[in-house]
Design a protein that fits this description.
Chain B: This is Proteasome subunit beta. The complex is a heterodimer. Chain A is α+β, with helices and mostly antiparallel strands. Chain A contains eleven helices and twelve strands. In chain A, strands 10-1-2-11-12 form a five-stranded antiparallel sheet. Chain A has a five-stranded antiparallel sheet with strand order 5-6-7-8-9. In chain A, α3 crosses α4 and α5 runs antiparallel to α9. The interface between A and B is medium-sized, with 34 and 32 residues.
Chain lengths: 433, 270
């Protein structure tokens, strides 16, 4: 179910609402597409949102090189996650009080298109969520499906926000928010507790990303982008974040696979390669699948194989009780690699798309385990430009997952981007001198 | 505080679907289709200690330079300044609305003392204006302006910070802020110059000289501009100050203006 349906051209929409007295010469156009390209990536133990910061005037003019307000925003205004510059509707006291009781992983939304609509959408979604959250008292969270008190962290938080966004967008079906969105957050992992954990999933959380069109049709994906330049960026991301197709398998481990620091392969990687080998040689799917583990094992497989590898008869109910999607919903690489790939992909798109450029802001939400396993997490603005502070001090106060927000702000004009550690180009032969 | 800038009774109700829009139009309530009396660029720039706006005092009636002493930079309260290009009557309407709100705030203040200042700061005005403009565009009856809002940010307790604020709202509700801003023609001609020369610690004299230069250049190249200009500033201690209009000196003997570019005896370039 790809969101391939395009909205009719702006002129058609505009004339639909012009009064009969206006001539065709100049009618007011309520929309102005002023740029923006947003991306969301869901990893095994992180979720990521990226955006460029350029705001155009719809044509060749640049209105702002530093526009982030309606472009990346936190769905819940008082989650302690202050992404945009003027989140001044938060009373600090209230934010801290909320953090003491609940620690939801922040859900970040990226929206691009008509920035007036994106800003309005931001306010509308926050209004809806605030109303929802304040209607359920802080002491009894049983009725509040957004806040979840389990030590494992947020439950259906991102899924609820994703669904809400659809409802809000479709509610304006007759006069759409010209806002193409992506949503990223942490979700309860659908893997079982058995094998298939690899480097992530210890806390039972994995990344979730969704992509929308302007009237609310959405789907969960591993990596997707939206906005101007989407056609340029999506193929790069598809390729960079996918395991290789069969012809390239030949004994080599797939790029973007997680590796331990000493270079040995992780369990996940070995089992993936075994699966590739099995699938390539036409072995029965069940031989690779362990007898024990049941639904959990299928879930693990489903997140790393393509649709073609999971025949319909093999799809079973996942841990969460719903059918597990045969489409990849997480990527395998660590978040640093994802950040590198995205920064360079944006640089490529900025070469050819005039609405994309200036700076890229990448926000990464890590699960607690991912943060701890690193040994170091840079918290706070990468360049010191953003004065948002994450709840880094609260990590010890709560039993729940306190996701860390890291900001990486590589500038597109960087002439020497860092090399990609675990990513190998498919056609390295053609690049060698 | 009410979003009372409605165009009429019927149109002020909920979102009008197309058929109703036509019906309303037939009854005589009109939607804005094009601006009639227009002002051109507004320039804005932060500097050390404040924010400065600049604009000329011309309001054009199509190609007629009709009103040569119009005020397009207006103070809203003691710490907020707006300037707008576009339809002049809509600017007057916006000014009435914002000043009405400011008066309301003053009359309903908890205290009569100036220290307990509960006036809206520039950020609030900007945010509110965004909502007003967006609502009007939703009704397909926009206020046809680009409004620049200048002032300072506000602490949660209502006191003014020393962090300057400069933002703009356009007629469909696009709102953004920056260190230097220009609307209309100024975005093409003046903004690159301002961005080149801008430094956060510019002195007031420097900022003013730069803005005057830009207004002069706009007069050279914008058909709807005038060399009679106004400068306004907001400072931490001085509040809002709007200058009286004055003329800029212009120089027309540039070689680039005088010499023919094309070799056909006519002006082939610009």
């Amino acid at each position: 179910m790809r969101s391939a349906w395009l909205l009719p051209p702006l002129t058609l929409l505009a004339t639909a609402w012009s009064s009969s007295s206006s001539s065709s010469s100049s009618s007011f156009d309520p929309y102005l597409l002023d740029g923006g390209l947003v991306t969301a990536v869901a990893g095994r133990d992180y979720a990521l949102i990226a955006s460029d910061t350029r705001l155009t005037d719809g044509g060749y003019g640049i209105r702002s090189r530093d526009h982030l307000g309606g472009r990346i925003w936190s769905a819940v205004s008082s989650s302690g996650c202050i992404v945009d510059g003027y989140d001044d509707d938060d009373d600090n006291e209230r934010a801290i009080a909320r953090r003491r009781d609940f620690v939801p992983p922040p859900v970040l939304v990226g929206s691009a298109g008509c920035s007036a609509d994106c800003e309005s959408l931001r306010r509308r979604v926050r209004l809806e969520l605030d109303a929802l959250l304040s209607s359920s008292s802080t002491s009894s969270s049983s009725s509040s499906y957004y806040y979840n008190r389990h030590p494992g962290g947020g439950g259906g938080g991102v899924r609820s926000v994703a669904n809400l966004l659809q409802q809000v967008l479709y509610g304006r079906r007759s006069f759409p928010y010209y806002s193409f969105c992506v949503v990223a957050g942490l979700d309860r992992a659908r893997r079982g507790l058995g094998r298939g954990r690899g480097r992530g999933g210890g806390g039972g959380e994995e990344g979730a990303a969704y992509v929308y069109d302007a009237i609310g049709s959405y789907e969960r994906v591993a990596v997707a982008c939206a906005g101007t330049g989407r056609e340029l960026l999506q193929p790069i991301l598809d390729r960079s974040f996918s395991p290789p197709s069969r012809p390239f398998r030949g004994g080599r481990s797939p790029p973007n696979s997680p590796r331990r620091r000493d270079g040995t392969k992780t369990t996940t990687q070995e089992e993936e390669e075994a699966a590739e080998a099995a699938a390539a040689t036409g072995d029965d799917f069940d031989e690779v699948d362990d007898v024990g583990g049941g639904g959990g094992r299928v879930s693990a497989r489903a997140t790393t194989t393509t649709t073609a590898d999971v025949p319909a008869s093999r799809q079973r109910a996942g841990v969460a009780g719903g059918l597990v999607s045969p489409v990849r919903t997480t990527v395998d690489c660590p978040w640093e690699d994802a950040v590198n790939v995205i920064a360079r992909a944006y640089a490529s798109v900025a070469e050819r798309e005039i609405s994309v450029g200036d700076e890229v802001v990448i926000c990464v939400i890590l699960t607690n385990d991912a943060a701890r396993s690193k040994g170091r997490v840079s918290v706070g603005g990468g360049d010191g430009d953003e004065d948002e502070d994450e709840d880094d001090d609260d990590d010890d106060d709560f039993g729940g997952a306190v996701p860390k927000l890291t900001f990486a702000r590589p500038t597109i004009a960087d002439p020497d981007p860092p090399p990609l550690p675990n990513v190998r180009p498919y056609c390295n032969k053609s690049h060698d001198a | 505080m009410s979003l009372s800038l409605q165009s009429g009774g019927a149109a002020s109700r909920a979102l009008a679907p197309p058929s109703t829009a036509r019906a309303i139009a037939d009854q005589g309530n009109q939607m804005t289709t094009r601006p009639i009396t227009t002002g051109t660029s507004v320039l804005g720039m932060k500097y050390r200690g404040g924010v400065m706006l600049a604009a000329d005092t011309l309001v054009s009636y199509g190609s007629l330079a009709k009103y040569k002493n119009a005020r397009r930079l207006l103070s809203i309260n003691s710490r907020t300044l707006i300037g707008a290009g576009g339809e002049y009557s809509d600017l007057q309407s916006i000014a009435d609305l914002l000043r009405g709100n400011a008066l309301n705030d003053r009359c309903t203040a908890d205290s009569l003392y100036e220290e307990d200042n509960n006036e809206e700061c520039a950020g609030e005005v900007w945010s509110y204006l965004r909502a007003v403009m967006y609502q009007r565009r939703n009704r397909m009856n926009p206020l046809w302006n680009d409004v620049v809002v200048a002032g300072f940010r506000q602490n949660p307790d209502g006191t003014t910070t020393d962090s300057p604020f400069l933002g703009v709202v356009d007629k469909i509700g696009t709102a953004y802020e920056d260190d230097v801003l220009a609307t209309g023609f100024g975005a093409y001609i003046a903004l690159p110059l301002m961005r080149e020369k801008y430094r956060p610690d510019m002195e007031e004299g420097e900022a003013r000289a730069l803005l005057e230069d830009c207004l002069r250049i706009l007069f050279y190249r914008d058909c709807r501009a005038l060399n009679r200009v106004q400068i306004a500033k907001v400072t931490m201690d001085g509040g809002v100050l709007v200058s009286e209009p004055y003329e800029l000196d212009t120089y027309w003997d540039f070689k680039g203006f005088v010499t023919n570019k094309g070799e056909m005896g006519t002006d082939g370039g610009w």
